[in-house]
Amino acid sequence: MPVRLESDPGPVPLFAPPDAGTPNAFARAFRLPPEEAQRYLRGRDRVRVTYDWRELWHEEHARAFTVSRLARADLLQSLHEGIKASVGGDLTRRDWTKNARQLLGEAGWWGEREVATPDGRLVRTTFNPARLQLIYDVNTRMAYAAGRWERIQAAKATHPYLRYVTRADERVRKSHRPWHNVTLPVDDPFWHTHYPPNGWRCRCRAVPMRRGEYERRDDLIKTAPDVALERWVDSRSGSTRLVPTHIDPGFGYNVGQAHVRWQGHIDVLARKANQWETPIASTMLESMAASSLFAQWYASPDGSAWPLVRLPDADAQALGARAQVRVASLSGDTLAKQKAGHPELTPADYAQAQGVISHYTHKAQEGRSMIYVRVLPSGSAGGGHVLVVKATRTGAGLWVTSFRRLHQKDAIRDSEVRRLLKKEGG
């Protein structure tokens, strides 16, 4: 369904240059509701201690929040939670800055201090009002840019073009001024590297445009500028990267595409696993659960769900699942409970979840739940696993509700196994 940009509510209007009507009219034309920006920030729910801003590069920022040389994960988490609250409208920039200053001050991080890096070097870092302003501005601008990209993609049927807009004032970088009014299709490769912001404190925007306006206006630059690359040496590591000319190193990527690409992998995986035959889908899910992609999701699921196992048709039907609903997903909430209740489990355990279903030794149904037990032969490494899958009341979904190890010596005394044996015995 086409998205009507004119009526979208939201607190963050894009900039309106003088030739685009009044600022109020332009703001009404395209506003960003906070949900998309919040979704991006939730996707960065993993905090990472770093000692140099170059340690995270491009798409890594879509999964992790960091503040260089703030070597306290708890402080990083608090700052990140505050930014999420601010983007959601619950905290002003002034409030976030005040709270951050108090937090850092009480923890002894306000002002200048030395920090020991993992390799034993001492480096200096400073937290002051200017640093807090930079942290806030970069993170909120990237969040809004990611959210806008999601909105732009949803609306490209009615607004197929994207126009680069600067603030048209004396503070605009000379290198960014030539991009003002560059107007290209939403999916043009130019936006892979030049979708703003394109540097520290960059205030540029990309604005959707209807085809009719695109065809009427003769002040637009309708040919993509040449994208030149230059070598940039990372003085920290000595490595060399190719970065787009006139874009600050670290900003030469599309933050919206990075965010969508991550979630897209999971969505495609779930859709295909539901459509394919059970043996093929089972093999694919088992392989993906053993991949680095699952390990990244496991570290920070962001409230999303991972398609973990494929049920045989007969089992799914017995639970009341709808047709084409055969994949049971592991939710981020359930994973959090699993980590608390079964801290011994690792991503390698979850890679064996499909095997529990495909090679179960015991199985029983209790209402809308199916319990699978795989007891490994004596002498095997480990005793096996217990997996529980539950169908929703409507049959629209299947969910993994429990997964745990089964120790060999305790297998026969395990209460769940004994209950299953009793059921199987009639």
Labels describing this entry:
alpha+beta; 3-stranded antiparallel sheet; 15 helices; 37% helix; 19% strand; disordered N terminus
Provide a descriptive summary of the structure in words.
37% of the residues lie in helices and 19% in strands. The protein is built from 15 helices and 17 strands. It has helices at 23-29, 34-42, 73-87, 93-106, 129-154, 190-194, 211-216, 255-275, 278-289, 292-299, 313-318, 332-341, 347-350, 353-358, 415-424, and strands at 12-13, 31-32, 46-47, 64-65, 111-116, 122-127, 161-165, 183-185, 205-209, 229-233, 240-244, 305-310, 327-331, 362-366, 369-375, 384-391, 398-405. Residues 1-33 have low confidence and may be disordered. It is of the alpha+beta class. The strands form 6 sheets. Strands 12-13-17-16-15-14 form a 6-stranded mixed β-sheet. Strands 8-7-9 form a 3-stranded antiparallel β-sheet. The protein has a two-stranded antiparallel sheet with strand order 1-2.
Assembly status: single chain
Helical element count? 15
Side-by-side strand order of the widest sheet = 12-13-17-16-15-14
Q: What is the gyration radius calculated from CA atoms?
A: 26 Å
Label the overall shape: globular
How much strand content do the residues show? Answer: 15-25%
State the share of residues found in helices, binned by percent.
25-40%
Average pLDDT, to the nearest integer?
A: 81
Distance between the termini: 53 Å
Question: Residue ranges: pLDDT <50 for 5 or more in a row?
Answer: 1-33
